[in-house]
C-alpha cells in the first residue's frame, strides 16, 4: 500500500500572512509603521479580534500613544479580562494611574472579574507618596477577593508599597512577613524597598537572610551601599559577587564618582570587560562634575571612536554636570553634537541646554535655544525665566511669565521661584507681594520654604525689615539658616543692630561653628559706632575656635578650571592677579566709589 506524501499548498491567504506578521506586533515601537499595520488590520476586519486588539494596544503604549490605544479598545464589542488588563497596563506605563484605576472600576461595572494579572498591571502605575492611599485600596480589594495567596500578587504589592514612602515600606514589610511562601522575587522586592527607604542596615540583614540570591539581589544591595557612601563595603561586596554584569560595574563606578574618588573610578572603568553608553556617561559625568574638562573631553573622543551615540538620558546627564561645575567648553561641545543628531528634536535635551547656558552665564545662548525650541513644556519656560531672573534681566523674566500664561501654560511652584527671584533683583516689592499671595488663591500652590525665602529677601533688600522678620516668624515651617542669613545681610545693608542680634542668635542654632555670622554682626556694630558690641562679637568669634571652611569660586579659561578660595595664595599667577585687583580697586575709587569702613576696634 503506497503512502501519498502530502505537501503544504504553495499559497497562503492574505489574512494568514497578516496574522503571522502580528505575532510580534506588541513589540513594535515605530509609530508610523504601527499606523500602517493598523490600516491592514482594519482592511482584514481583524480590529475586533481578541488576539489582535491587545497586541495593538500594547504597541501603542510602547509608542507613548494612549489615545489610539483607547480607540482600539472601544472597537471591541465584548472585551475580556485580558483586554482590560492590557489597557490598564498601558495607562500605568504612561504615567496615568488615575485612568488605570478608573478602567479597573469600569471593568467591574461591566461584570468582568479581575484576575491576578489585573492587580499587577494596576500596581505598575503606583509610585510616589500620592499613590500610597491607592495601593492601600488595591490591597483591600486583593484581600476581599482572596488573591493574596497567589505569590504573583503580594510580590506586586511589596514592590508598589515600597515605591511610595517610608510608611509604604512598613506596609510592604507586613505583606512580606505574612507570606507563607516567598520566592527570590519576593526577597528582591523587599530588599529594593529597604534600599529606597534608606534602611541600609535592614537591607544588609535581609540580604544575609535570603535563602537564595540572583544577580539582582547582589546589585540591589550594591546600589544601596553605594548610595549610602559606604564605598569600602561596596568594594568588598563587589569582590564577593559570584557573577557580575554591566549593572554591577556601573553601580560601583557611579559610587566612586559620586564620592569624588575619580582615580579609583577610572581604574575600574579601564578594567571593565564590557562598556555601554551608561558606563561611558557615568565616567564622563564624573569628570565633568569635578571640573576636569580636558579628561571629560578626551573620554568623549574615545566614546565616539567606539561608535557609541548619545541618547537623551546621557546627554541630559552630562549637560547637568556641566551646568553645576560651570564647564562651558564641554557644554558647547555637547551642543554641537546635539545639532548634528536627532537629539536636537528632544525637548528634554533643549531644556538641559537652556539650564547649562544659564548657569554658565551665557543667558543669550540660553535664550537662543529657547527661541528655536518648537515643543516647549513647562520646564522650558521655568529654565529660561529662572536664568533671566538670576542674571539681572528681571523685566524680561516677568514679561516672559506673562507671555507664558497667555499661551495657556499653567505655572507651578518652580515657576514662582523664578518670578519672585526676578522681583528680588529688581526690588519690586509690591509685585513680589502680589505674585506670592496669588500662588495659593489663583493657582492652588501652597508656598514652600523657597518661596518664603525669596519674599523675605526682597522685603529685606528694600528695607522692610520688620515685615520680613514677621513673615519669617509666621511661616508654616521653621525658617532655615538661609533665611536667617538673608535677614542678617538685610540688617547689615540697613544698619539695624537690634534685628541683626536676633538674626545671629537664630543662626548660631544652625551654624554654631561659623564665626562669619559674628563677623557680620561686628561690622554692623562698627557702622553704628557701638564699639562695645564690636568687642563682644570679636570675643565670640575667638571662642568658636575652628572657623568654617572658606568659600570658593571658579572660572573656566580654555580647558582649565581655575579655583579660588578666600585667603588662598596657591594659584601660580597669584602675584599678577593681586596686582590687577589693586589696579581695579584704585580705578573704582577714582570713578567715585567709596568703600565701606571695615569693622575695627578703636585704638
TrEMBL record:
GO terms for molecular function: RNA binding. InterPro entries: E_motif (IPR046848), PPR_At4g14850-like_plant (IPR046960), PPR_rpt (IPR002885). This is Chlororespiratory reduction 4. Keywords: Repeat. Pfam families: E_motif, PPR, PPR_2. Coiled coil: none annotated. GO terms for biological process: RNA modification. It comes from Zingiber officinale. PROSITE patterns: PPR.
